[in-house]
Design goal:
The chain is mostly helical. It has 17 helices and 6 strands. Helices cover 50% and strands 4% of the residues. Helix 12 packs parallel to helix 15. The two termini are 36 Å apart.
Length: 404
């Protein structure tokens, strides 16, 4: 059985389902502090609704309290999606209207994020000095310096450590002595896919397009370091090398193996799932951001044409099988919506009503995806909120996706 709802109705219904926090007393994993699957991510939904006057601050506060009910981790491995940085992002969102909510806690956490960022930069420098490859945990949006850097750009754009983070990414774009990309990792993309010798990831979530989006966003905000534009150009050049053009429009491989780099030939034969995390939407949005930052109108047209072609291709859209932000309809909608606001033509915006309808098409047989932000109900509700109001999120919650 399937039902179709308007985005506003869907957002309201999902928010109502998540109105009351429930914390498992036997769960000591700390995941309540998680943006991706815990109370912190659900709190973002209710903060956005409270800021938009479609929800209450009492509900938002209940979820903020739940997210911090067992303290906030300041461990060295915390990141934008877990612990001090995640809660700092949440509290910053709650102050987006200029009110000093949670100010004391926010100030304390901002200091901790600065300390964490310095430690991460120092650790990465030590790794590089040993001649070792980087890793997702060092640089990506979920666990690495891309996510922490985006938080600094939002909170402390004048911080010295943000300059160090940007310098780190400039160096990361430089080829290694063996001529592999600087962001080459020695591990597999995930536990189910083997890439002997490592791989170079092109996606927005774990790959170089996350770096590109961050560097482009910083440049758009006027926060720059020496070599900044050159780093963007190196990444874009790499993407140009591996771009494919066929009947479905421009597309890029999700990652490249050692054999593919050596032969100059990608084994991926066509575009896969059009997702925020790995697919054409995220890769195109990152290039659009960088193109706007550098004034590269030709690249902006290319990126926007790639996204519009992807959205018009039933074959690609058929690969979308869930409603999540990470790899489903919610992430596809939010990425396309942000891209449409910056686009040179209305081609992307023309697809938004149909994408919004896909958000609202709920299948009762769809497997339960949880309640969190990244792969669950909260993320879908936030994308539906955007589809309803047609305005940028007041809280800026989607900055954690690097699409703004």
């Amino acid at each position: 059985m399937t039902t179709t709802q308007q985005p506003g109705t869907l957002s309201e219904r999902l928010a109502a389902q998540l109105a009351a926090p429930v914390i498992d007393p036997d769960d000591h994993s700390g995941r309540e502090q998680s943006l991706s699957e815990g109370a912190a991510g659900i709190a973002l939904l209710h903060v956005e609704r409270a800021l938009a006057s479609t929800g209450s601050w009492a509900t938002a506060h209940a979820w903020v309290t739940a997210a911090t009910s067992r303290g906030v981790s300041t461990a060295a491995d915390t990141n934008l999606y877990l612990g001090a940085s995640a809660i700092s992002f949440l509290l910053s969102a709650a102050q987006a209207d200029g009110r000093d909510r949670y100010q004391r806690a926010a100030t304390m956490l901002e200091h901790r994020v600065l300390v964490l960022a310095r430690h991460r930069v120092e650790t990465s420098a030590a790794r590089a000095s040993r001649g070792e490859a980087t890793s997702f945990g060092e640089y990506d949006v979920f666990t690495g310096l891309t996510g922490i850097g985006r938080l600094l750009l939002q909170h402390n754009p004048d911080a010295d450590v943000l300059e160090q983070v940007l310098d780190y990414f400039v160096r990361l774009t430089e080829p290694r002595p063996d001529q592999l990309p600087g962001w080459w990792v020695a591990h597999d993309p995930d536990t189910t896919i083997a890439t002997p010798g490592g791989h170079a990831n092109l996606g927005l979530a774990h790959g170089v397009c996350g770096v590109l989006a961050f560097l482009g966003t910083a440049l758009r905000q006027g926060v720059t370091v020496e070599g900044h534009a050159d780093a963007i150009a190196r990444i874009c050049g790499h993407l140009d090398t591996w771009r494919h053009d066929d009947d479905s429009g421009p597309w890029w491989p999700e990652w490249l193996t050692l054999d593919e780099i050596r032969t100059g030939r990608a084994l991926q034969r066509g575009p896969l799932r059009p997702s925020w995390c790995y697919g054409t939407p995220g890769i195109a949005r990152a290039q659009q951001i960088a193109a706007i930052a550098t004034g590269d109108t030709a690249r902006q047209h290319l990126a926007e044409d790639a996204l519009a072609a992807c959205l018009a291709d039933p074959g690609q859209l058929a690969h979308v099988t869930d409603t999540s932000l990470c790899h489903g309809w919610a992430g596809l909608y939010q990425t396309a919506w942000r891209a449409a606001q910056d686009a040179l033509t209305p081609n992307i915006a023309a697809h938004l009503p149909r994408l919004a309808a896909s958000l609202s098409h709920a299948d009762s047989d769809e497997p339960e995806q949880g309640s969190g932000l990244l792969t669950g109900t909260a993320g879908l509700a936030l994308a539906a909120h955007t589809a309803t109001h047609h305005t940028p999120p007041i809280s800026g919650w989607d900055a954690c996706l690097l699409i703004t």
